[in-house]
Write a structure and sequence with these properties.
The protein is an alpha/beta fold and 456 residues long. It has 2 domains: 2-161, Rossmann fold (3-Layer(aba) Sandwich); 170-375, Aldolase class I (TIM Barrel, Alpha-Beta Barrel), CATH 3.20.20. The protein is 39% helix and 15% strand. The termini are far apart.
């Protein structure tokens, strides 16, 4: 079959593009079964959805696979609804081709799979969770989709789910080809091009849906196979910067150490970033990671007060976070890292004193890391089947029947967690964060203009 794989249109230019890693994995699996596979990302092309129309006409595909990575941008002070542009993507695809089967997948889809199938009649099939096994099997049995586990399909006007499917054997999966999309479109930031070392997250953060999407058991690739993938990216595409696209890179810590040691032994010269667990990030590990090319680290402590850390099940204490910041600011050997800390405001377990503690650490981290790191604040975006969502309903923070996939963007203003006892304080926090982000944006803009004038 001829297959066109499309990353759903986002609707606006973001700070940086993300290479469609999930589609690359699926494309590799499809191509290994003899299918003709092409890729298109309307977010990377100046032609946008017009370019998708052209490629559908040129290829005349039998199947159009569309990946929905995120429902929205998760940012309360700058809400943007990607889902509406995903709907535009599928409408345009169907308007150009009435015969092609439209198959949707991706993490954003899987979170709201049944609803998305019910609301978007243009869709023929939905691939639930990871699709490297189920998508190729669906194409082999497309006239009898009910026998393929992990598939949503239509029968007599009803949306049917074929049943749960075991997750793929990621540990032994071939690394993905990267020629389905022009990789040159994704070079402008170290976080654009991802490499996965594992799937599955054993952590139990109460707001997070990673265990739902990838399971809680880690499926870990060997350090050798990851080194092979990096060598491929360097030799074929001259890639020198990338991000480890794992939920947590240094869990298990020994696996992360083996990867770093393999890079050093093979002489792989790259720069990379990663999401990391604070507790596994001691100086010895950081020195090894730095030698292997690590330049940037993202931490998600999410809280600093005991109440929030316990409510979010972070398995951290305030001293762990404080000691981490001290390590990166006071140790001269650690000052080459770019470090980011993320926090939630008005989170479960929060108090007035807890909020003040968060704001104090936020300002302290911003000042201490200025020029080589940052700290971010946000609110928890409620997701179905998470502990925080259940808690929000029980507390009366949101109604039991709240629509987490609203029809209009205005509905997104209601899907963020706000501690009921601190609701009176929330408008002030939102104004404060909006003002501060606008101030930062203006400051960055001024610095950019100064650099441009200096270059002239």
């Amino acid at each position: 079959m001829k297959i066109l794989l499309v990353q759903a249109y986002l609707g606006r230019k973001e700070d940086f593009l993300l290479y469609p890693l999930g589609l690359a994995y699926v494309g590799t699996a499809l191509q290994s079964r003899g299918h003709e596979v092409r890729g298109y990302d309307p977010n990377a092309s100046p032609e946008g959805l017009d370019g998708m129309q052209k490629r559908i006409i040129e290829l005349s595909p039998d199947v159009i696979g569309i990946s929905l990575r995120n429902i929205d941008n998760l940012i309360r002070w700058d809400i943007f609804y990607y889902y509406k542009y995903f709907q535009e993507t599928i409408r345009v695809a169907r308007s150009v081709s009435s015969k092609a089967k439209i198959v949707v997948g991706g993490p954003g889809f899987s979170i709201f799979a049944e609803k998305i199938m019910q609301r978007n009649l243009e869709l023929d099939f939905g691939v639930y969770l990871e699709g490297e096994d189920s998508f190729p099997e669906l194409l082999e049995k497309i006239d009898n989709p009910g026998v393929v586990k992990g598939i949503f399909y239509r029968k007599n006007g009803e949306v049917i789910f074929s049943g749960a499917r075991a997750l793929p054997d990621f540990a032994h999966m071939t690394y993905p080809r990267r020629d389905f999309f022009d990789i040159n479109d994704y070079r402008n930031d170290i976080n654009c091009i991802g490499v996965q070392t594992k799937r599955g997250c054993p952590l139990k953060c109460t707001y997070c849906n990673y265990p739902l999407l990838n399971g809680s058991r880690q499926r870990v690739r060997s350090a050798e196979s990851i080194s092979d993938e990096l060598q491929y990216l360097i030799d074929v595409f001259n890639i020198k910067r990338f991000v480890f696209a794992d939920a947590i890179f240094n869990s298990p810590k020994k696996h992360a150490e083996e990867i770093c040691e393999a890079f050093i032994k093979r002489g792989i010269k790259v720069e990379w970033s990663a999401y990391m667990d604070i507790k596994n990030t001691d100086k010895d590990f950081l020195m090894l990671a730095q030698k292997a090319g690590c330049k940037a680290i993202i931490f998600s402590p999410d809280g600093i007060s005991r109440g929030v850390l316990q409510a979010l099940n972070k398995m951290l204490e305030a001293k762990d976070i404080e000691e981490s910041l001290q390590l990166f600011t006071k140790d001269k050997e650690m000052r080459n890292f770019n470090v980011i800390y993320g926090f939630f405001l008005n989170a479960p377990g929060d108090t007035v004193s807890g909020l003040l503690q968060t704001l104090y650490f936020y300002v302290k981290a911003k000042l201490a890391l200025r020029g080589r790191g940052n700290a971010h604040m946000n609110w928890i975006r409620l997701e179905p089947e998470t502990v925080v969502f259940q808690r929000a309903v029980e507390e009366g923070a949101v109604p039991k029947d709240i629509e987490l996939l609203p029809d209009q963007v205005e509905g997104l203003t209601k899907v963020f967690y706000i501690k009921p006892t601190l609701k009176w304080l929330d408008p002030f926090l939102l104004v404060l964060v909006k003002w501060f982000m606008k101030f930062i944006a203006n400051e960055v803009g001024v610095k950019k203009q100064r650099r441009m004038l200096a270059d002239d």
